[in-house]
Design goal:
5-stranded antiparallel sheet, single chain, Methylamine Dehydrogenase, Chain H, mainly beta
């Protein structure tokens, strides 16, 4: 009987082994085909680790790695990341004074990758988009700092301070990172979720700052190149405090139950029917939205909600029980003629699944794919990408290197 069982089981084992070898061969063959294809080569590469960038680590020490932001402005590329926690030991005790995080700002020549400037700030972590390009070739940096130095180990009062409102500063920087202008933005200290958010128009000329205080907010419109205030008005949570995107003339926000609102700065907002997803103004009259469903589709619409065209891209449909793909917020050239995003998804058969992150850039209004490449990274949010003003180059970070690619002439 035992021998009969072996004879019955052995064919199933061989069948399973052959199936595993088959899928391994398929995966290996597909990888070899990808290698054999003409993979885009970067014009230059800069390793961020030599400037203090930390990659993710797990094991005895768990570290998600440095948070990072990227901006492309004129002939400069700026990269901002946290190097380490900034602490000062207290003499004669085991405690330390915690000042925040030490952030490094690298300013690179967009043509060569040469280091133009290296700056440092003591600030809080980057929870929102805080680094932006300007139309004149400079940069904007929104920083927050601790209301006061904290002690480590932290007390319950220190913990409340850590997660409460923080003093906020808006900096105008030169292409090499020199500070040109500083605005201290008012913080009243209550409620706990009080904070400032920044949204830049695709032309890089208009900056909308939102001061959120509970269920109300104040919106302030600045000239991005000079930080001159042009307009300010108040709003409420139900009619426009949650800003999604801005142009030089109007804004898109979210109202009750996630409904989309669009209107001119300072005026009342109208409810419009837009697809769900990450939205971005391409021009004053066109909005692009990248969503998840239906799979692999982006929509270009007018501010009225009227659909103009669609963009289709390759994405793996995992089915009802699979891991959903991720779509990063889109980015564009200043004229709105080119738009890109990064897609993260799980690919391959069950036994050989892997994470794949792909950068895409399209030409609008033809909606033609002009560039794509796979970006190595452990997770989608660690990847940053940005187009230059005319869309002829794209910079990407992932996971610890800045890579610059030339694109076909628009």
């Amino acid at each position: 009987m035992h021998a009969c069982r072996q004879l019955l089981v052995r064919p199933y084992l061989w069948a399973g082994l052959r199936l595993a070898l088959f899928w391994a061969g398929v995966l290996l063959t597909s990888d070899l085909l990808l290698i054999a294809q003409a993979k885009p080569k970067p014009v230059w590469t800069v390793d961020l680790k030599k400037y203090g960038f930390r990659g993710p680590r797990s094991g005895l020490v768990n570290d998600p790695g440095s948070s990072l932001q990227l901006a492309f402005s004129g002939d400069s590329v700026a990269v901002l990341f946290d190097e380490k926690s900034e602490t000062v030991p207290q003499k004669g005790t085991d405690t330390k004074t915690w000042l925040g995080w030490r952030f490094v700002g690298l300013f690179l020549n967009a043509k060569t990758g040469e280091l133009l400037g290296r700056r440092f700030w003591i600030t809080d972590l980057l929870w929102r988009k805080q680094l932006f390009p300007t139309a004149s070739g400079g940069f904007l940096l929104l920083t927050t700092r601790f209301p006061r130095p904290l002690e480590i180990p932290t007390s319950s009062a220190d913990s409340e301070t850590l997660y409460g409102p923080h003093p906020t500063t808006l900096l105008l920087l030169s292409p090499t990172g020199e500070e040109l202008k500083r605005l201290e933005l008012p913080i009243h200290g209550a409620p706990k979720d009080e904070h400032w958010e920044a949204h830049l128009s695709p032309s890089r000329r208009s900056l909308l700052m939102t001061h959120v205080e509970g269920k109300s907010c104040e919106l302030v419109l600045f000239d991005a190149d000079s930080l001159t205030q042009n307009l300010s008005w108040k709003s409420s949570e139900t009619v426009g405090c949650r800003v999604g995107a801005v142009s030089d003339e109007q804004m898109q926000a979210y109202g009750e139950k996630g409904r989309h609102l669009i209107g001119r700065f300072g005026d009342s907002l109208d409810s419009v029917d837009l697809p769900s997803g990450h939205s971005l103004f391409l021009t004053n009259n066109l909005i692009v939205t990248f969503g998840i469903l239906p799979w692999g589709t982006a929509w270009i619409t007018k501010p009225t909600g009227e659909q103009v065209s669609t963009i289709h891209f390759e994405i793996f449909d995992p089915g009802p029980s699979g891991v959903r793909p991720g779509v990063a917020p889109p980015f564009s050239s200043s004229d709105g003629r080119r738009v890109g995003t990064v897609i993260g998804q799980t690919v391959g058969p069950i036994l050989f699944q892997r994470e794949q992150h792909t950068l895409y850039v399209w030409q609008v209004p033809e909606n033609k794919l002009v560039f794509t490449t796979e970006v190595k990274s452990s997770w989608l949010l660690a990847i940053q990408a940005a187009l230059c003003d005319d869309g002829s180059r794209v910079a990407v970070v992932g996971p610890a290197k800045v890579l610059m690619y030339d694109l076909p002439v628009p």
